[in-house]
Amino acid sequence: MSTTLPHITAEALKAGILDMCGIATEMLRLTRDAFLQDIPTTLDRVAALGHDLHLKEKRWTDHVATQIQDRPWSLGSAEHLAFVPMALERIGDSVDALSRRIARIHRDGVPFTDRAFMKVTELFNRTASLMDLIATAIRTADQGALTRIREDGAAFEVQCEEAALRHQERILNGACAPRASSIFLAMLDHFREVERYVQRIASAVEKTFPTP
């Protein structure tokens, strides 16, 4: 016997997405803290939050997809946010991948140069800031937040590219150990993936804003 799912309102969907944003942002901040200081329980918390994010994504995506199929545009302009829970799950996956790299750094005593250490810390802070801006845009329909996301995202991409180039120079100069090199470059890719999904979410959020 089939069960009719309760109707989702636009505000309920936005509230659910904001909840997921909060979880993903907390994962980022905890992973940064674990990078700065080796506390295994911190990474355990990241894994638990990642699992929670997966469950919420499936619940929201399935529910929204069913409602859209049965009652197209019943969510109004918020229907543009239908894929956002999936994007947030992908962000969570990237953060989880970062946490696994960090676990290896601490477990195997992988040496990072001071420059690499500062760069990774800065990238953590910048990605967390992008997540805060997405939440602000959803909560307040602030076009300025979306403008900052695009500007900061462009600067973020440049920063990652420059970090990769400087890293190559350190490898050639023998200032970076090979095992640290592979982890650092992988972490750059994970940060880039977070930023790419933030941009996709920003584009979806903009479609929900009232037309001037």
Task: Kindly describe this structure.
With 212 residues, the chain is mainly alpha-helical. It has one domain: Phosphate transport system protein phou homolog 2, domain 2 (Methane Monooxygenase Hydroxylase, Chain G, domain 1), CATH 1.20.58.220. Helix content is 80%, strand content 0%. The longest helix has 31 residues, at 40-70. The N and C termini lie far apart (46 Å). The mean pLDDT is 92.
Offer a quick outline of the entry.
This protein has 212 residues and is mainly alpha-helical.
Descriptive keywords:
single chain; 212 residues; 80% helix; elongated; 6 helices; mainly alpha
Layout of helices and strands:
Elements: H1 10-36, H2 40-70, H3 84-108, H4 114-140, H5 143-172, H6 178-206
Which CATH class applies here? Mainly Alpha
H/E order of the elements?
Answer: HHHHHH
Helix content: over 70%
Give the tally of structural domains. Answer: 1
Form type = elongated
